[in-house]
Amino acid sequence: MLQALGHILPIAVAVAISSVPITATILILLSPKRNQAAVPFLIGWILGIVIVVSLFTIFASVLPSPKFREPDIFAAVGEILVGAAMLVFAFITWRRSRNKPPSTTEPAYLRAIATFGALPAFGIALALNFRPKGLLLAIAAGLALHTANLDATSDIILIAIYTIIGASTVAVPIIVTLASPVKMQPRLLSARTWISKNNKIVTVLIMMMIGVVIIGTGLSTL
Hints:
There is one protein chain. The chain is an all-alpha fold and 222 residues long. The protein contains nine helices and no strands. The protein starts with a helix and ends with a helix. The model has no long low-confidence stretch (mean pLDDT 86).
């Protein structure tokens, strides 16, 4: 179980420091509808993480199991392919952003989130887990759990840990801001500015590092 935990921890951290849900959280917390939308957004984000990683863990379980002491070829190849896809994703993101000056504003669809009420906020948070990056990370986590060949209880525990870490960067700002909105206001504004300027390079670096880690995990399984 500890080995599987070591495999999913970097993936969970990548989920946690994803710029899109963090930016959406900040915009909601700075909006007049903060008290209506923040908690539903958090619930949707947590539920989405659980759904996608659970689905891919179940899908991975149908892969042929290796014979005793033989490497899990299918899971290893899957991890290598997912890691390679992350590197491609990072390269494409870098190519698209290298000739563009850093932006000080968010995309229009993110700014629109600040106007959402409870139900739309819940829905968009759920949907954010189904972005290509989110799906790749969930596939990697599902393959890691499959490779570990643990019982259902251990899988549930690891998915819970993965979810807690992945949701932490959305949960903590929401909880703290709702408890002390005036104190958090300048910090949220500062974080919003920093993320707007640096989100592309952060995404590229994260996806490169996680891609390399997952490829290494797959190669070590062979």
